[in-house]
UniProtKB/TrEMBL annotation:
This is YrhK family protein. The chain crosses the membrane at residues 38-60, 66-84. It holds the Pfam family YrhK. It comes from the Bacteria. InterPro entries: YrhK_domain (IPR025424). The lineage of its organism: Bacteria, Bacillati, Bacillota, Bacilli, Bacillales.
Length: 107
């Protein structure tokens, strides 16, 4: 039912499923943006810290292995950040799509 109009919700009457989901995602994004911005800032801070400490460890032969380990950990954090964002986006779109479908069934 991708193009079915939603008429049950007075705030979202005459909207297609895509319009409904997009509108809800914009509201959702503004609400959760502050929380995720804090998490992303903390992640970025830790990334910088791991790379700084790893770089310092590289100056000392006995600590080079630990330095490389910190570089690998920081690199994994680079991969996790967009992965978390993508998973969150997909789950939220699925949730609002299902909510729209339920409203259509209840009309």
């Amino acid at each position: 039912m991708p193009n079915t109009k939603c008429c049950n919700d007075t705030n979202h009457s005459s909207q297609t499923r895509d319009e409904y989901v997009t509108g809800k995602m914009q509201q959702h994004t503004s609400f959760y943006k502050k929380i995720y911005q804090l998490l992303y800032t903390l992640n970025d801070f830790l990334l910088g810290l791991w790379f700084l400490i790893g770089s310092i460890f590289f100056y000392f032969e006995p600590l080079k292995t630990w330095g490389v380990t910190l570089f690998v950990i920081a690199s994994l954090q680079f991969v996790l950040k967009p992965t978390i964002r993508l998973i969150h986006e997909i789950d939220a779109k699925r949730y609002y799509g299902q909510k729209y479908d339920e409203e259509i069934r209840n009309t």
